[in-house]
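Hey all, quick one. A colleague (J.T.) asked me to put the NAP job into the tracker so the inputs and the structure tokens live in one place instead of scattered across chat threads. No bug as far as I know, just bookkeeping. Sequence used:
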Amino acid sequence: MQTRQLGHNGPQVSCIGLGAWPIGGGMGPVAAATAIATVRAAIDAGISLLDTAQAYRTSEATLGQALKDGYRQRCFLATKVSGDYSPTGIQQAMDNSLKALGVDEVDLYQIHSWNPQYPVADSIAAMLKLQEAGKTRYIGVSNYDAAQMAQALETGFFHSNQPRYNMFDRDIETADLPFCREQGIGVLAHSPLAKGLLTNTYRPGHVFPATDERSDFPRFQGALFDRYIAVADQLAAIAADKGLSLVQMAIAWILRREEISCVLVGAKNQAQLQEHLGAADVSWSAGELATIDAMLRAAPAG
Ligand SMILES: NC(=O)c1ccc[n+]([C@@H]2O[C@H](COP(=O)([O-])OP(=O)(O)OC[C@H]3O[C@@H](n4cnc5c(N)ncnc54)[C@H](OP(=O)(O)O)[C@@H]3O)[C@@H](O)[C@H]2O)c1
């Protein structure tokens, strides 16, 4: 597995990471035994970076089970504080996460989102304290734009940002990715398969069950969903010409950008995970990228 550096002077991490939101049950139920086998298969295959969060339901506890028997030592474990970004909230969330994960320290601790209700200087100072205390090796943020990252940097350096980035969500290309490059901030791309729009699994008219978060998302309903599927079908044909599945193309397309340290892909089982591995070493010609860009211009906005 190819590795990349996570930010200025940062550690090497696998260019494909395992996103642990689906094994927490957020996209429909996943049996604990399947989840544990998936996590271990990922680490056995050379995926070092595992990403979870306080808010990912049963994910941290399930990861804790999977990381027994020496698997913890073989991975780069990232989690997040979700919701309360006050210094006390951050400190308590960290202790709860360490307990759920069954570890003494994590490798990366991230602030899950921007919330102006909590002064960012205080939140970053609290994160730096946890780093000094040895509870996390590195700190990071998530879903921050360039202006928000700049504000956070006034208090101290953090190694990563975790934004949404995929073929249908390209907002970060304009200002946020260049900012990360200039400042030496690593980028962990989340939702790379647009949560299933870029997998070739679903046909127009598909209805997601209430246990799946996608049942609440407008882009997974009705005519808008059908428009995304139509563009994805065209992309799948380009992928096939290159000997890739749409899933592999979607991941490899993100890795074309040097700012990306790691693509966090959600997997519900080992078969899905195995497919992701085939995206690690793909290269692109300028012509291929231009063809894809032209197709993506037909995708719905936002
Ligand atoms: N920081 C944030 O705010 C934030 C937000 C979202 C995600 N994340 C992180 O990013 C990670 C990735 O995002 P995500 O899991 O939400 O979405 P994603 O990676 O875009 O999509 C994951 C879903 O795609 C489907 N899938 C995966 N591999 C497949 C394959 N080989 N073939 C067919 N279908 C496949 C599975 O759902 P089905 O099989 O049910 O279709 C899976 O649950 C998360 O797990 C989490 O760690 C962070």
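Adding what we noticed when we looked at it: Strands lie at 3-5, 12-14, 16-19, 49-51, 76-81, 106-111, 136-142, 160-162, 186-189, 260-266. DSSP finds ten helices and ten strands in the chain.
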